[in-house]
Structures are given as C-alpha cells and as structure tokens.
User: Fold AmmeMemoRadiSam system radical SAM enzyme from bacterium.
Amino acid sequence: MSNLKVASFFEKLDNNYVRCNLCPNRCLLVPGQIGLCKARQNIKGILYSLVYGKVAAVHNDPIEKKPLYHFLPGSKAYSIATTGCNMSCKFCQNWDISQKFVDEVTAREMTPEQVVDEALKQGAKSIAYTYSEPVIFFEFMLDTAKLARAKGLKNVMHSNGYIMPEPLAELMPYLDAANIDLKGMTDQYYTFYTANGRVEPVLDTLKTLKQHGIWLEVTNLLVPGGNDSPEDVGKLVSWVKENLGADTPLHFSRFFPLYKLENLAPTPYDTLNQAAAIAQKNGLKYVYVGNIETDKWNNTYCSGGQLAIKRVGYFVMENNLTQGKCASGEAVAGVWQ
Assistant:
C-alpha cells in the first residue's frame, strides 16, 4: 500500500466500512470493495486512491479540443487522465480508459512535479484534466494544480460535473476554466444513459463554478432519440441562459455510435443545425457545433457579424480580437491572456 494515496473526503464507519464523499454516488464500501468509479478502494477501513500518479493518457492538445473556445485561443493544454469514471455512459468515446480498472491498461507513472515539468517543456499554457473523469483522480489533480499555479500555468478541466460541494470548493482556488458536460435535463435521461447519475448535482456544479468566477463553457452531446428534440434543447438552452448567462459558450456535440450504442446512427446534421439555431434564437451569444466539419458553427463572431476567431477543426487560423475586443470595441466574453 506504500504506493497508494489515502483518499480525501471519506468517513470511517463501524466494522471498517467507509463512505466516499467525493461525488454524489457516495459509495458505501465494505473492506476490500472498490467504488463505482473503479478508482477508490476500502483497504482495512481506509479509503485509498488506486490511480494517483498513474497516467493512462497524456497529450499536448490544442485548448480548443477540450473544448474551450474562449480561453487562451490557439494555446496548448498539456492533457492528462487516469482510468475510471463515476458515471458509466453508454455513449462514452473514451470508454477504453474511463470504464477500466488501472491494472487493465498500460499506465505511465508520473508525479505532479513531472506533469508540470513536461507541460512547461512542451510549451503548454495550461494543464488539462480530461479524457476520463478528473473528479475521480481528485487528489492527483489537486496536487498537480497547486504546483502548476505556482509555476505560472493555468488549470482547466473537462468534467461531467458530478462532484460534491466540499471537494469542489477545495479545487476552485486552483482552477481557471472548465468545460462541463450537461448531458440532459432530467434524472430519467441520466439514469438511462449514465447508469447512476442525476442532473441536479451537475446543475449545482455549473452554478457554483459560475458564481466563483471560473471561466465556464458547456457541452451537450446530442443523442438521437435521447435528448435531441426541440423541447429538450429548448429546456437546456433556457436553463443555461437563465443560470449561467447569455455569454456562456454552449457546444453541441455530434454523437457517433460507440461503446454500448453502436446500434444508433450519428446525429443528423439537420438536428445539430436546428439545436444551434434554437440556442441562438433564445439569446445565447456563442453557440458551437463539434464533431463535424463546419465553418458556420465553429467560428466566433462579434455581435455585428464580423469574424472574431476563425477555426478549422481544433486550430485557430485567424484571431481578430485585440485584448478580447472586436474592432468596434465590443468585448467578447472569455479569458484571452
């Protein structure tokens, strides 16, 4: 056990049981049992992280891949993940690490110091905690984020937002930006597609991040027959506008048949265009469509229609903003330097 990290946010109970309080699953674990996330285990009445420092994926990505379109555009984000996730989404595109135990993959041992050093060597402006679910490697993320902040790097995460308020509060002082997956607007949707999630904790996370000044963008994967009706989209768009603000970027993402939903067809282009049009009509200023090749929904525009940022795929081809402002002087919401 010398190579394991004692977990944060758990309580000891009678008979060496423990309850994990990191995420809303709040797993009750008997000795020897591993949580739903596949990343935390009760060993003789103490909860341990099984994935601390065991990096299953690492890349120096464009920040746009997170996706974060209004945060240091054109910069690189040194991106890391471990195995495990606190949801079991049927459509997961990274299921080969998120739905695996750490001993089922080839992981690279890295300390927080090594992660930060590599990020600096590769010219990254930020470290991204992403790919699987950063909440479940909380201790490793937090230790790395503290070092990164001290070295002048930004910290960003792409997360399902399924975290309890206390650990979120501990993380936020070191977090600069987040993209949160808002998968749907009902518990019924979350239960069917993620196995164990609920929507309210995700909404609470979104509101908390916004209230504390963390730069926030939202992603919604449109699953055919699941959450892609005009009514579903309208409900999500209205919630984002009312609770996060009209200047919060919203990314609609195209579903592709993967993992347990290989029987479904990809999201039709018409559905994606319709969703983006609904968001714009309802007053959201920055609406994007991902996982497709498109100019219309990949660029950022000033309110007068002038091109602010031109993107091809995940790459910035033009940035016509000056300190986050259009030529007219209009400020575009975001973090630009």
The longest helix spans residues 230-244.
